[in-house]
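Example A, followed by Example B.
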Amino acid sequence: MSSHTEHTEARDDAQGGHLTESREGGAVAVADDPFADPGLPPHEPRRQDVDERAAKRSERTVAFLFTLSMLATVGFIVSYVAIPIDEIVFIWPFGHVSGLNFALGLTLGVALFCIGAGAIHWARTLMSDVEVAEERHAIEATPEVKAHVLEEFRKGGEESQIGRRKLVRNTLFGALALVPLSGVVLLRDLGPLPGTKLRHTAWKEGSLIINEATMQPLRPEDITVGSLTQAMPEGLDPHSEDFNVEIAKAAVMLVRLEPEDIKDERSADWGYEGILCYSKICTHIGCPATLYEQQTHHALCPCHQSTFDLSDGARVLFGPAGHPLPQLRIRANDEGFLEALGDFDEPTGPSFWERG
């Protein structure tokens, strides 16, 4: 029988749904999948499989990479602590760059790269490289499958030589244990904890009240009935680094009312000759509540329309604000300037979860 006839018969048998064998005797075809399955190539041992000295060299290489990762992680932490954030260095070919950013990027990159490179070299030279084909199975695991999985896991542990190659195992654990410290150290930028900073401002006894517009101390006669003046404590420098942090808590507004228009007795006692000093930071989300209605003595926050009655202890009349604007106790000193009798008796600005 000719080869053409043999090929035709093999094709006819395949179309009939039977497994057939080609002329070469190795490829198999079925009716639904007529393409020959080439099968798996014969396994060829690696040098490390037959030469223990080569395996030891690979083991030392993997351990070196994991150890280098540990050293790079330590370098990351040291760089973060030791290098000033504003230090600029020249590094060719990058030019002038932030020394801290360059050190952090380099050390973290080396730490992660060495773990990956070590794992790949371990897998390619020491772990078993025998290819195994398995049929797909249902998701449900039978007791037999579970036993098979556990056995395969045990066999994988043996083939990976993680128990035998203690140097690789121990350095891997060291690298994996240290590299997360890089992220833990970065949490430092979330702190320090505020402590009692939210409860205190730059105001203290004897602090002069400074007009924000003129930067001059205020006298009682500078504030007329029906007016609103924005002010801050003395000693704050608008050009200082922490000015915005401090003014966000210490900014105040002063209004002068006729004494008979002041409804709250304590509010009148804390003022001076009808001059009342309130925090201008809205107790909702911290916008400046300085839109003043002269006839009603109401202060309006432009962000969400919280409205405060300055003639009645700055209580909330409308809007989402949770509590009145804190009031600052004031007096006139011997030189005739308005000054504070101390800090606010409660935190200024928006509410926070631990506010008492």
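Example B, a separate protein, is given below in the same form.
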Amino acid sequence: MTTTHHLPAGKAANGPYTVDISPESAGWGHSSLRVLELPAGGWHSFDTGDSEWIVLPLAGSCTVAVGGETFRLAGRESVFSGVSDFAYVPRDAQVSLASRGGGRFALTGARCTERLPARYGPAAAVPVELRGTGTCSRQVNNFAAAVPAGGDAGQGFACDQLIAVEIITPGGNWSSFPPHKHDEHRPGEESELEEIYYFEIAAHDGTPGLGYQRVSPSGHGRGTDVLAEVRSGDTVLIPDGWHGPSMAAPGHDMYYLNVMAGPGAERDWLIRDHPDHAWIRATWPDQPVDPRLPRYTAPSQ
């Protein structure tokens, strides 16, 4: 079982970034993730190059300046405390971040061709979804989800190729279950998407948290096969394969940020469930959602 797809905290650090995953470093073509930590009064600038990006506060607040506009992101105390606002910045732009109080910020990116306008994404507009029931209950913050099939533009955040969401799994629960995949282009049924998982795990009484992530070969692509113990700051790269479950250890809530992009002309998130485990969905209507969820909801407009 390979470990090249599990990058423990610090393994993907580069320059100012505690995580720096590019298409080149991942060995694929589209998805990127950077995590930037700024001290109080700190600032950082970067060129977007051939990719579109979303600046998402994980902890703390910042301003984002791009193309003569400045977006003030109120952010949040932590990923477990609330939904965050965010800023979208287009390809071929110069971006500057500054944080008066310091913080940690995710830069989720995808190579693209269309140059969309820079925009502010308010926390109040982020759809918060409860998915699954019982021990499969989890919360999904769909801040940059793709528009659902047959939906309208108001049901998703417009990007050219980037798809990004946040998941919170209460301690003891499983998410990304049933295992699913998106490594084939099957029109109307499955998208071909590369995916990055970035984890933060809640501590309990000062004890750092942990969880587990499984990826198993699907018969397509590289035969990705991972069973990893994951901790805060870890990433898992998923070029292909059945991914899930993501298992939160009892007493330690699990957060992960998903970043996806692929070669398809349409920005779709279409998945295929593992045939051995798809039956679990039929049990969900008979169970209540975990009463610990939602962990929080989006603020009022």
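On Example B: Residues 23-26 form the longest helix (4 residues).
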